[in-house]
Design brief:
heterodimer; A: alpha+beta; four-stranded antiparallel beta sheet; about 25% helix; elongated
Chain lengths: ~230, ~180
């Protein structure tokens, strides 16, 4: 048996998955060939390690914890206010920029009175991505259109909001929820006309929540609601 | 360097990155150890906060980030068990059981790190290791099951083990 042939069998040999005749032939070769024996030595301890991982499946990280940690950190920093939020991106023109491409954000004008959490993700695995659109509605003609794009790290939420009170000071929070469970996706403010374009990222994944809600941060009053069907 | 970035982390980006990299496996480890989802979430939250508070003490020469986080989680689990033990009305932990639990925790930490290493392999490599090691199939049976040529199954298994060994070395986990 040649060294190349033995190398090909070594994986099965180490895992005890060869037929008896193959196993004996590999064992005989290893007894005589120091190079192959050294390669075997490198792999021989793996089954014992693997045995510890038998039956272990890594679960998704619980979605709400991430926000709670960030809030606690913000409090412990001593300022007592919520963590500092990066300035938002504003795409001029209502309903423009339907694209979920990051480029739309990168090319956007900063400022314009809108604040949002803009966080990069590593969700560029096309296989892990899904997208979803929904409409949120509220009292007084307030409405929003949301586009959700899921990745392995959670959901990126793009939301176009209009018809909110045009004060520009109120902080709104976007929440991904199901019965008895709620995860914050971040906060935003509107412009002086009650509009906002927000890009937020939450660790909650599509399928983990049933509705998106926008609440007023100060008193958690419901402002907009949309259900995922 | 993720842990160093935690210190000046104004936006929360570094904490989010840390949480998304390790939150799932730490949650799995803790949930397995405590058997209670709510308590496990509390521990994962506590581990994240301790990592942030003590990021200045982290020494990359002494341990990989993952090992460091697992050590924090292990200590938090032991603290949680102690608190449960002194709480009236709850079952008392015998000291002997706690010592035994510590050893089991070490093994569980190892198991979750190996599970994390497996996640870093390609799906094809992971499949070979799972079928041979966890389901006890022979190379021939795997070839029949998957429809792959026997030679492919064998070479893929060898490459899979080599990859696993490299990933474990990077993580600072080595066979004893």
């Amino acid at each position: 048996m040649s060294c190349a042939h033995v190398r090909e069998q070594l994986g099965g040999y180490v895992l005890g998955a060869l037929e008896p005749a193959e196993r004996d032939a590999v064992a005989a070769h290893l007894a005589e060939c120091r190079t192959c024996a050294a390669e075997h030595e490198r792999l021989a301890g793996l089954p014992a390690l693997l045995a510890h991982a038998d039956g272990l499946e890594i679960p998704a990280a619980p979605a709400g914890v991430e926000e709670r940690v960030l809030d606690r950190i913000a409090r412990e920093r001593g300022s007592g206010r919520r963590r500092r939020l990066p300035r938002a991106a504003w795409i001029p023109g209502w309903a423009r920029g339907r694209s979920l491409a990051a480029g739309a954000l990168a090319g956007a004008v900063l400022g314009a009175g809108v604040t949002a959490v803009v966080l990069g993700g590593d969700d560029d695995d096309p296989a892990a991505q899904q997208s979803y659109s929904l409409v949120l509605s509220g009292a007084g003609g307030a409405s929003a259109r949301a586009e959700l794009a899921s990745g392995r790290g959670g959901t990126q939420v793009h939301m176009w909001v209009k018809g909110l009170p045009p004060d520009g000071d109120t902080v709104y929070e976007v929440r991904c929820e199901r019965r008895g469970w709620s995860a914050s996706a971040g906060t935003f403010r509107t412009d002086s006309r009650g509009r906002a374009y927000v890009v937020l990222t939450t660790a909650a994944r599509l399928g983990e929540y049933e509705r998106i809600r926008v609440v007023r941060r100060s008193d958690t009053t419901n402002v907009l609601t949309g259900r995922l069907n | 360097m993720l842990v160093e970035r935690l210190r000046g982390d104004e936006t929360g980006d570094a904490m989010r990155a840390l949480y998304r990299s390790y939150g799932g496996e730490l949650y799995g480890f803790t949930l397995n150890a405590l058997g209670d989802a709510g308590a496990a979430e509390e521990i994962v939250q506590e581990v994240s906060l301790r990592a942030w508070r003590h990021s200045g003490r982290y020494d990359p020469r002494r341990a990989a980030v993952r090992t460091w986080l697992y050590q924090i989680a292990r200590n938090a689990i032991i603290d949680s068990r102690r608190r449960a033990a002194v709480r009236p009305g709850l079952p008392q932990h015998e000291p002997a059981i706690e010592a035994e639990g510590g050893a089991t925790l070490e093994q569980a930490m190892l198991g979750w790190q190996v599970a994390a290493a497996l996640e870093r392999l390609t799906p094809e490599h992971r499949q070979m290791i799972r079928m041979a090691q966890f389901r006890g199939l022979t190379m021939r049976e795997i070839a029949e099951h998957t429809g792959l040529p026997l030679g492919t199954v064998k070479s893929r298994t060898w490459y899979a083990l080599r990859s696993l060994r490299l990933v474990l070395e990077e993580m600072g986990v080595t066979p004893s």
